[in-house]
Design brief:
The protein has 335 residues and is α/β, with parallel strands linked by helices. The protein is built from 10 helices and 10 strands. Pyridoxal-5'-phosphate binds next to helix 3, strand 7 and helix 7.
C-alpha cells in the first residue's frame, strides 16, 4: 500500500549544471537543489515530513516529540510542518550530543541560526547538558511520557526523521531525479558516462541519520548510478543502522533489504567531529559561493562537497555526477 502524504514542499526541486565547478573538477557536475524546497528555508527533511505528518494526522496525535542537536535542521523543518497542521512540536536537544567522547572543539553557537527559527516557529525546545546520544534518546522518551501523562496522544519521531517513512520519501525522490535527468552526453568518450543514457554515474550527498541514503540506494540499486553518502558523523558502524532502516523500507516497497556492506560511505570528511565545522568543509563552502553563488552548510553539505572535490581530484569519482544539496543553510548564521 502506498503511504499517504501531505503537501509541504515545491517538488520537483531544481536540477541544474554547475558550469564552473564542472570545468575546475573535470566532471559533468549537476546539483539537485533540495536547499530550495520552498519550505521553511529548505532542506532534505521537507520530503520526509510530507509522509511523517500524514502519519501523525492519521494517528490523531496532538504532540510530536523528537530529539537532536541544538542546531538541528530537522527540528526546524519539523517545527514548521507541525505549525502548518496545528500540532505541538517538542524536542529534547543537547548543544552537541556525542557517541563516546565529548568533542574537544566548539561547534556552532546555540543562540542563532536554526535556534532562532525554532523560536519563531514556537518549537518547545528542552535543552539538556551535553551527553551521549543514548542519553538524549532517554530524555526524549521521558519527555514523550510526560506529555502522555497529561493526556496527549504523542507521536515519536527518531533523529533526522529517519523512520521507514522518511526513507520512503527519498525512494520517491530518486524517481524525481531520474525523471528530470539531463539529456545524454554526446561529445564524451568512454568512461565519461557517454553510454547514451542521461543517467548519473554518481550521486554524492551528506549522510547522517540515513533515510536519504537508504531511500536513494534502494532506488538506484542494480543501475549504473552509484550512491555515495559522505558521513557527517565519525561512526563506521552507521552502515549497520542503514541496513536496519533498509529492512523497514523494504516492507513498504516489497524489496529485499540492502546489507550494511552494500551502502557506499565516505568517512574522510568528518573533520573534528559531528556538529563541528571543518577546514576542508569551510573551503568547499567558500569555493561554491565564489564560483556558483550557491551556499552550502558547515555541518553536512559543505563537508560533503569538500569530499566530492577531493574524490574528483584523486579520480575516485568521475563522469556525470549529481551533488544532492541537502540544505542546512541557516546553520551558516550560527558560525
Ligand atoms: C539531516 C541532514 C542531512 C542528512 O540526511 P539524513 O537523511 O539524516 O542522513 C544532510 N544534510 C543536511 C543539511 C541535513 O540537515
Amino acid at each position: 500500500m502506498t503511504p499517504s502524504k501531505v503537501q509541504l514542499i515545491q517538488a520537483p526541486t531544481p536540477l541544474h549544471r554547475l558550469e564552473h565547478a564542472s570545468k575546475d573538477l573535470g566532471l559533468d557536475l549537476w546539483i539537485k537543489r533540495d536547499d530550495l524546497t520552498g519550505f521553511a528555508m529548505g532542506g532534505n527533511k521537507g520530503r520526509k515530513l510530507e509522509y511523517l505528518l500524514a502519519d501523525v494526522l492519521a494517528q490523531g496525535a496532538q504532540t510530536v516529540v523528537t530529539c537532536g542537536a541544538m542546531q538541528s535542521n530537522f527540528i526546524r523543518q519539523l517545527g514548521a510542518a507541525c505549525a502548518v497542521f496545528g500540532i505541538k512540536c517538542a524536542a529534547a536537544v543537547m548543544k552537541m550530543p556525542y557517541e563516546h567522547e565529548p568533542p574537544s572543539e566548539d561547534g556552532l553557537w546555540s543562540e542563532s541560526g536554526n535556534v532562532t527559527l525554532d523560536k519563531w516557529l514556537g518549537v518547545d525546545l528542552h535543552v539538556y547538558p551535553d551527553g551521549e546520544w543514548d542519553e538524549l534518546y532517554t530524555r526524549m522518551e521521558d519527555l514523550a511520557q510526560e506529555f502522555e501523562r497529561r493526556g496527549q496522544v504523542v507521536y515519536r519521531i527518531p533523529v533526522g526523521g529517519s523512520s521507514p517513512l522518511g526513507a520512503y520519501a527519498f525512494w520517491e525522490a530518486g524517481l524525481e531525479l531520474a525523471a528530470e535527468s539531463p539529456p545524454p552526453l554526446v561529445h564524451r568518450g568512454r568512461g565519461q558516462g557517454g553510454g547514451g543514457s542521461g543517467a548519473f554515474d554518481w550521486i554524492v550527498f551528506a549522510s547522517s541519520s540515513g533515510s536519504t541514503q537508504v531511500g536513494l540506494s534502494h532506488r538506484f540499486r542494480g543501475t549504473q548510478t552509484k550512491v555515495l553518502g559522505v558521513l557527517s558523523d565519525p561512526e563506521p558502524e552507521m552502515a549497520d543502522d542503514f541496513a536496519t532502516l533498509s529492512a523497514g523500507l523494504s516492507l513498504l516497497i516489497g524489496e529485499v533489504p540492502l546489507k550494511a556492506e552494500e551502502f557506499q560511505v565516505n568517512l574522510d570528511a568528518v573533520g573534528p567531529g559531528y556538529g563541528i565545522p571543518s577546514e576542508d568543509g569551510n573551503k568547499a563552502i567558500s569555493y561554491l559561493a565564489r564560483t556558483e553563488g550557491i551556499f552550502l552548510d558547515p555541518i553536512y553539505s559543505g563537508k560533503a562537497f569538500g569530499a566530492l572535490m577531493a574524490l574528483a581530484k584523486s579520480g575516485e569519482i568521475g563522469g556525470r555526477v549529481c551533488f544532492w544539496h541537502t540544505g542546512g543553510v541557516p546553520a551558516l548564521f550560527a558560525m
